Amino acid sequence: MSSVTAQIADAVATELTSIQAGEPPEHAFGLAFTPVRAWRPRYALKDLAELKVTVCPSAFNLQFAARARTQVEYGCEIAIQQKVEGGGDPAVDALAGLAEELAEYWIGRRLDSPDAVCVAAGLAPESVRLFVPEHLDAENLFTAVVALTFRRWEGT
Amino acid sequence: MTIFSDSEARLGAVYASAVGETVGYSRGDTSASLAAWRSPQPQAFGVDQGGGVLVEFESWEWHLAAADLGDLGVPAIADRITAADGRVYEVVAPPGGQSYVGDALLRIHTKHVEA
Q1: Where on the phi/psi map is residue A53: left (φ > 0), alpha (ψ -120 to 50), or beta?
Q2: What is the pLDDT confidence band of residue A18, given thresholds at 50, 70 and 90?
Q3: SS3 A17
Q4: Residue ranges of domains in chain A
Q5: Whether B48 contacts chain A with CB within 8 A
Q6: Which one of A39, A46, A134 makes the best mutation probe of the B interface by having the most chain B beta carbons within 10 Å?
Q7: How far apart are CA A8 and CA A135, in angstroms?
Q8: B57 has a chain A CB within 8 A of its CB
Q9: Degrees (nearest 5) of the Cα angle A131, A137, A141?
Q10: What number does CATH give the domain A4-155?
Q11: Do B53 and A138 touch (CB under 8 A)?
Q12: B92-114, pLDDT tens digit by residue?
């Protein structure tokens, strides 16, 4: 049995790839990127001169919604990474904007397969800022993680 | 200049001519061509900070004579060193530390940022 969490990440990556290719659903993000589906973003600093967008399965949570019905939430994270000139670089503004765009795009959106709807989109739970400050300070690297929560119901 | 710093600078010049290479040192639009040498081996680290995002990097120490930096003065974070082989290194500061040490002969902390 394949992981539904992984299937959702696959579907998210596939849809983002379609958008970048100009295919439906038609949408335009402020920056061009090639999404990669992985279990964890892992790149060498020297390869981050170009924008990397990585879609990762993250978590799941089951709750009883009724006597014979279960509500399941699946987490999916989208990591955005690119080397920049520094904290004041306009590129940082654009990358932060992409993080917001991705959250706005996915909130309320439904996936066909697996059938699930995005009920929350925003910063990863442990984040206190939109970006990872340690990466920007130590490596002039912009890193942001957008966390999506997809919900579906199982049972009757 | 003390006898020690004078000796350090002379030693650096001798070492640069023996094992150094000509590199490009740049800060924004300003650049200089100078002799420098890097540590023989990189220190490789993986950093996992925030959101489980892993970034692998190589740290290298570069050595050069402070006088060769000319108008650039002293190294600053985000300065770039382009080695003879085309690799690009960026000046960084280790956590809680400074990006370089030394007076006449500088040891500069960098990370490899472009192949």
Answers
A1: beta
A2: very high
A3: helix
A4: 4-155
A5: no
A6: A46
A7: 28
A8: yes
A9: 60
A10: 3.30.2000.30
A11: no
A12: 887 778 899 988 889 999 999 98
B78 in contact with A at a CB cutoff of 8 Å? yes
**Amino acid A126: pLDDT:** 72
What pLDDT does A87 receive?
A: 60
Nearest-CA residue of chain A relative to B92? A138
Greater model confidence, A104 or A25 = A104
Q: Are A86 and A140 in contact (CB under 8 A)?
A: yes
Are A96 and A102 in contact by the 8 Å Cβ rule? The answer is: no
Q: What count of other Cβ atoms lies within 10 Å of the Cβ of residue B101?
A: 12
CB contact under 8 A, A143 and B53: yes
**Is A67 at the interface with chain B, CB within 8 A?**
no
Is the Cβ of B86 closer than 8 Å to some Cβ of chain A?
A: no
The Cα B106–Cα B2 span in angstroms is 16
pLDDT at A150 over 80: yes
Sheet strands (E) in B3-114: 21-27, 30-38, 43-48, 54-65, 80-82, 88-91, 100-101, 105-114
Whether residues B56 and A45 touch (CB distance < 8 A) is answered with yes
Which residues are CB-neighbours of A134 under 8 A, at least 6 positions away?
B47, B49, B50
pLDDT at A110 over 90: yes
